[in-house]
Each structure stands twice: as structure tokens, then as C-alpha cells.
Design goal:
Layout: E1 2-7, H1 11-22, E2 27-30, E3 47-49, H2 65-76, H3 82-91, H4 96-101, E4 106-107, E5 120-123, H5 126-141, E6 144-146, E7 153-157, E8 160-166, E9 169-178, H6 187-194, E10 196-197, E11 200-201, E12 207-208, H7 217-224, E13 229-230, E14 236-242, E15 263-266, H8 280-283, H9 287-292, E16 299-304, E17 319-321, H10 324-331, H11 335-348, E18 349-350, E19 363-364, E20 383-395, E21 398-399, E22 406-409, E23 412-419, H12 437-456
Parallel strand pairs: 1-2, 1-9, 2-6, 9-23, 12-20
Antiparallel strand pairs: 3-5, 4-5, 7-8, 8-9, 10-11, 13-21, 14-20, 15-16, 16-20, 17-20, 18-19, 22-23
Keywords: FAD, Flavoprotein, Oxidoreductase
Protein name: Tricarballylate dehydrogenase
Cofactor: FAD
């Protein structure tokens, strides 16, 4: 019997396994995917949002706790547990040295990297390199790792973990960390969460930006077993991505980042939201849900040549035309309505000093929805269109937890069952998103869960990395 069983193979699971092993516990990690697809959604990440009170290695200026908290409060609309959120924020300030000890390298953000040079630390080689570094470190430390090991049931004795099951196989452990992700790959569950509009399942037009292996089997089992749940099943990290993206694992390269530089139209060739409401890193993750609420769950980002070179180019080129009418025709939208919408927007633009790096004074007047910033007429050919679909990265329905990362049953924390990552992110993310915070949550709670699991298994918890917590 091992001391600590970790179920999952992404960032949170790996942080938990490493912390538990550093504390002296024997650790077995079960990853549902084959080795070549290991790492869950972490393989698609690029950075970690970090609190810091002054310039630090790859981070410029300062990003203090209160500003981080206000950013999170704004995007979640207050649907967040402040105590747990501030725990994540503070933990983000002191984790990078620990990450480096396990082989993670950081780099300054590239020029034009979505205004996040001050707030986010970028991984050299992206999330895949981070995943590989953590697995190498785990193997070197003696963590046992099994691939193709999807856990489908948990054996409980009241609130206490006893064993996990993979089909007929039973795996006992003294303590356990659940870090097996959400249910974004489970189309049936997405259908149930989003329902129907005009007799059509909304979720059938969704693409899965993240891993294909997050079916939510363990999450559903735990909820049915009486674990306390938190979050709205329809809420998720949902990004507007290129409609031509693959069904699974499109990752960052399928995101369309020119929204704030133009306008977005629905299938009826009408605008439906303020494209310049705030900086793109604070708003990109609302656009998937906005598109999901439009007819046919499709939108069209429209720009002109003035925008080219000002955003990260997606993997697919946009549809190009020399006139607005030709662009409308090429996208299949009603030509007169399309042209009228763009011309009305153009006439409403009040162009001041355009600066995409600040909340500038270029705005619209007299139209709804307004465009608050970066509003310039779309009048310089060639014109471009990108068809958009909702791209689900991870879902927010999860298990309720506390500062010790314990799973709760009727409000009572388990003494030896813990949760981290996407399976509990809904405690902090009731809705919305801001770049890099998912990795902050997974890193903070993965480290806490691993520490607590080792302690629960009878190992002395480490205090050397700023993540020491008393058991509730």
C-alpha cells in the first residue's frame, strides 16, 4: 500500500505528487491518458499569473495582492471564495523557485504578449515543457507513475478514503489527492448543462480546446457519493476560437485575438457585445460564452488591414476580401445587413489617440452595444473575417474545499481525501477568467493537497516551500 495516491496527470496532480514525495511519502500517480497525451490541459498552457510587490526575475514593475484580487473579483462578478482566492494569490508569489528546482524554466513574455509582462510568468517551451519537467523530476524522486489508468470509482468509509478502482482493480492508499480535471470532453454532460435552444443542443456546436480525456467520471462519482459540490455546470473557461479548429486539443494556437481591434457579428450580421470593454487578457475568456449564446453558436470577428500585426496570429488565416460586401458574401452573411452594421459602427467611432496597450479614448457614441476602447472605423482594405465557435478549455463545476484542500461531505472535511486543480477551481472561479489564474489555482492547491496528503498518511509535512497548513 502506498502512502499517497494521486489521481490525475496535469499540473495540480504533479505538484501534489512532488510535494508528497518531498515530504517523505511513497506516491503513486495514475494518469488516465497514454504517455504521449499526458498532462491534461496543462500541456496547452503558457504562463502563471503571479503576485509580486516589485520587479522579480521575469516580471516587471509590481502586481500587488489587492490588484490581483480586484482583477479576479471583476472577472468573476464576485462569484469567488475570497479566503481561498487570496490563498491562491499569495501562493503565486513564492512558487517559482520551487518550480525551478523541479526543472521549470521561465522566460520574459514575447513582445506584444497580451499586456501580461507585469502579471504573468511565461514557461520556456510552454506547458508541455513544464509537464515534461515535472514528470522527469517525479520519476527521479521515485514517484510511481501509471498511464492508461482511468479511475472510475472511489471506495469510501464515511468521509475517509479507502481505495480507488480501475474497473475490477482495487488500489488502496493511506491518503488520496483527486486532480482528474473537469468534464469538458463529456458531450452528454455538456448537453445537460447547456440545454436546447429551438430544439437544438447548444453544446453540439462546441469545440473542446483542451484535453479529450477529461470526461468527468470521477467528478460525477464523487458528487453522487455525497461529496459537496460547488459551481454552475454551464460555467467554464470558454474561449472564442477559430471555427475550423479540431474537435480536441486545439490549444492556444486556435484562439482568435483580434476581437478588441474590430467588431464581432453574429449569424444575423449584428453586433452583440462591447469588443473594447477591457484589456484582452481580462476578457478573452468571456467571448466563448458570448458566442455560445448567439444563434447557431457562431460569431465572426471582422477587422481591416490596420489591425494586422497588432495581435497574435492564429493558426488559420482569415477570410480576406477587398470590399465589405465581398467579405459578407464570403462568410455567408446577409450582405445588406453586414454592410449596414459595419457602416453604422464606422459612423459612431470617435477616434482619439489609438493605443492598444492602454485603455485609450477611441470609443463609439450613439450605438448599442457601445465599443468602449480601440474603436476605429473598419475602412481600410483588405478586410478580414474569422468565424468563431465556443472552445471549452475546462469546466468550473467541482468539489467544495477549504484551505487544507480537503474534500467535504455535508460540510465535514475528509481526513485523508484532498482535491486540487480543475476539480475544485469553481471555489475560486464562479465564472469568468483572467489569463494564467488556472495555473495559479492548480499550483497552489496541488502543493497544499500533496502536503496534507503526506501528513494524513503519517509523514511530516514540509514547511520549506511556504505551503505549510494545519489540518482542520
Amino acid at each position: 500500500m502506498v502512502d499517497v495516491l494521486v489521481i490525475g496527470g496535469g499540473n495540480a496532480a504533479l505538484c501534489a505528487a512532488l510535494m508528497a514525495r518531498e515530504a517523505g511519502a511513497s506516491v503513486l500517480l495514475l494518469e488516465a491518458s497514454p504517455r504521449e497525451w499526458r498532462g491534461g490541459n496543462t500541456q496547452h498552457t503558457r504562463n502563471l499569473r503571479c503576485m509580486h510587490d516589485g520587479p522579480q526575475d521575469v516580471l516587471v514593475d509590481a502586481y500587488p495582492e489587492e490588484e490581483y484580487w480586484q482583477d479576479l473579483l471583476k472577472v468573476t462578478g464576485g462569484q469567488t471564495d475570497e479566503k481561498l482566492a487570496r490563498l491562491v494569490i499569495r501562493a503565486s508569489s513564492n512558487c517559482r523557485d520551487w518550480m525551478r528546482r523541479h526543472g521549470v524554466h521561465f522566460q520574459p513574455p514575447l513582445s506584444g504578449a497580451l499586456h501580461v509582462a507585469r502579471t504573468n510568468a511565461f514557461f520556456m517551451g510552454g506547458g508541455k515543457a513544464l509537464v515534461n519537467a515535472y514528470y522527469r523530476s517525479a520519476e527521479a524522486l521515485g514517484v510511481q507513475i501509471r498511464y492508461n489508468a482511468p479511475v472510475d470509482a472511489i471506495e469510501l468509509d464515511g468521509e475517509r478514503f479507502v481505495a480507488a478502482r480501475i474497473g475490477d482493480e482495487r488500489i488502496a492508499a493511506r491518503s488520496c489527492v483527486l486532480a482528474a480535471g473537469g468534464f469538458e470532453s463529456n458531450r452528454a454532460w455538456l448537453r445537460e448543462a447547456w440545454g436546447q435552444v429551438n430544439g437544438e443542443w447548444v453544446a453540439d456546436n462546441f469545440l473542446i480546446r483542451g484535453t479529450r480525456f477529461n470526461m468527468g467520471v470521477l467528478l460525477k462519482f464523487m458528487i453522487k457519493a455525497g461529496a459537496d459540490a460547488i459551481g454552475d455546470p454551464s460555467q467554464s473557461h470558454c474561449v472564442a476560437i477559430d471555427a475550423r479548429a479540431p474537435l480536441y486539443d486545439g490549444g492556444i494556437c486556435t484562439r482568435v485575438d483580434c476581437v478588441s481591434l474590430g467588431v464581432v457579428l453574429n449569424r444575423n450580421a449584428e453586433r452583440f457585445y462591447d469588443e473594447g470593454e477591457d484589456f484582452w487578457p481580462k476578457r478573452y475568456a468571456i467571448w466563448g460564452r458570448l458566442v455560445a449564446q448567439q444563434p447557431g453558436q457562431i460569431g465572426y470577428s471582422i477587422i481591416d488591414s490596420k489591425a494586422i500585426g497588432r495581435f497574435m496570429p492564429p493558426v488559420f488565416p482569415g477570410i480576406q476580401a477587398d470590399t465589405l460586401a465581398e467579405l459578407a458574401q464570403a462568410t455567408g452573411l446577409d450582405v445588406p445587413t453586414f454592410v449596414r452594421t459595419i457602416e453604422t459602427y464606422n459612423a459612431a467611432c470617435r477616434v482619439g489617440t489609438f493605443d492598444h496597450a492602454v485603455l485609450d479614448d477611441c470609443h463609439t457614441e450613439g450605438i448599442a452595444p457601445a465599443k468602449s476602447h480601440w474603436a476605429r472605423p473598419i475602412d481600410t482594405p483588405p478586410f478580414y473575417a474569422y468565424a468563431l465557435r465556443p472552445g471549452i478549455t475546462f469546466t468550473y463545476l467541482g468539489l467544495k474545499t477549504n484551505e487544507q484542500a480537503a474534500v467535504h461531505f455535508d460540510g465535514k472535511p475528509s481526513p485523508n481525501l484532498f482535491v486540487a486543480g480543475e476539480m475544485m477551481a469553481g471555489n475560486v472561479l464562479g465564472k469568468g477568467y483572467t489569463a494564467g489564474v488556472g495555473m495559479s489555482i492548480g499550483t497552489a492547491f496541488g502543493r497544499i493537497a500533496g502536503t496534507q496528503a503526506a501528513r494524513s498518511a503519517g509523514q511530516p509535512a514540509t514547511t520549506s516551500h511556504g505551503v505549510s497548513h494545519a489540518v482542520a
